[in-house]
Amino acid sequence: MNRPVQPPASAYFITPEKEANEARTLAIIVDNEPGVLARVIGLFSGRGYNIESLTVSETEHEKHLSRITVVTRGAPHVIEQLKSQLDRIVPVHRVVDLTRVAGEDGESAPIERELAIVKVAGKGEGRVEALRLADVFRAKVIDSSIEHFVFEITGRPSKIDKFVAIMEPLGLVEVCRTGVAALSRGKAGM
Can you give the residue ranges of the ACT domain (predicted)? Predict the structure, then answer.
């Protein structure tokens, strides 16, 4: 009786376990100089990872430091590799993963906010409904005419997603989003 040949016990035949992709929010403190953003973002594109949100602004004018906040999605071990590679870029001062599992080490999820400007066109009953829903979401009217409204809304990205989805059947015309700004909770800073 012929038995099937088993492959030899080798590391090459061990199938790696698939880690679930997780959303991660990274804060990166860098020198505010030309080319730094391109180098930081190049690491993500070089590894084939998409950036879901990106915000950049100078935060310490006297020291010429900027803060880059990146929301990306990936396997935990790959995100750790990205963080260590980011730490090695010369103009990068600190890299902090703001994403924490609630309750882990006494920490909780970071405070994340986003700003969106949403234009909705409509007349009659749809117009009244758009105003009513904007009030529920605490969106402010920042421009209006007889045929449109422009709303300003801030909150977690999921809140903005819901607001945009609700406005779509009411005459959504255009959306502009800033990207996520995030801080860790507690008294300590970066």
Answer: 25-100
Length reported for the chain: 190
**Helix H or strand E segment including 190:** none
Give the separation between CA 174 and CA 158, rounded to whole angstroms.
18
Question: Which fold does the domain 22-106 belong to in CATH?
Answer: Alpha-Beta Plaits (3.30.70)
Q: Which string of DSSP letters, residue by residue, matches 81-107?
A: HHHHHHHTSTTEEEEEE----TTGGG-
CATH number of 111-183: 3.30.70.1150
Tell me the whole-structure pTM to 2 decimals.
Answer: 0.76
Q: Report domain extents, the chain.
A: 22-106, 111-183
Collapsed DSSP state (helix, strand, coil) of residue 11 = helix
Name the more confident of 63 and 16. Answer: 63
Asked whether residue 27 carries a pLDDT value surpassing 70, the answer given is: yes
Non-local (6+) Cβ contacts of 50 within 8 A are 44, 72, 73
Cβ proximity of 40 and 88 under 8 Å: no
Lowest mean pLDDT among 6-10, 35-39, 162-166: 6-10
Residue 96: CB partners within 8 Å, gap ≥ 6?
A: 26, 27, 28, 184, 190
